[in-house]
Design goal:
Layout: H1 10-16, H2 20-23, E1 28-33, H3 49-62, E2 63-69, H4 71-81, E3 95-99, E4 114-118, E5 123-125, E6 131-134, H5 144-154, H6 180-196
Length: 218
Amino acid sequence: DDRSSKNTPTDHMVSFYQSFEAIKHNKYDGMIITGAPLGQMAFEDVIFWPKLQEILDWTETNVTSTMFLCWAVQAAMFHFYGVDKQLLSKKLTGVYPHEVIRPQSPIARGFDDHFEAPHSRYLFAHETGKHLFVTGHSEYEPDSLKNEYLRDRAAGLNPSIPEHYFVNDDPNQSVKVTWKSHGSLLFANWLNYYVYQLSPFDLSQIGAQRLVPPADLV
């Protein structure tokens, strides 16, 4: 849209970003839609909700596989499946244990039975591989949660200390990085099995027929 970015210089936006109108006639093998700090707002109250709905519908015919991160998971689940979000009494923040319940799924290939990831508790996908939902931030750098915590504290929000993140849960000590290898595997597996292997050689054929996953993807 025409709104200016609050945190990114205009010349950077002009150099590296394009409007949806400029690219909506293209086809793409993969797309990532990330989050925004809008968890407390109703979807209908988000100023760009109509445009996001348009983009979500567009991915159905123009993108082989879309990965949704964080708030974008909530938005996509609500838009596509009518599943609304449930607010917690306080912000969930930290690095949490996860368990692989479908080890045969390519998205978990190479994962340990138990692994850790920042922020959230679940990762799930549509059976065709067209939608992948990652409710946390496996891509986070070591200091990302720390910077969010310090930002919220400076704003007077009295944030909770991220769980299982600082040594001895003390924000004055160093960060325990326990998620980077699985985070890298997650994105590598998505790009290989859900984007590269499922995309037609002729990208113009994306969306022309129902996506049929390999046998080990279902």
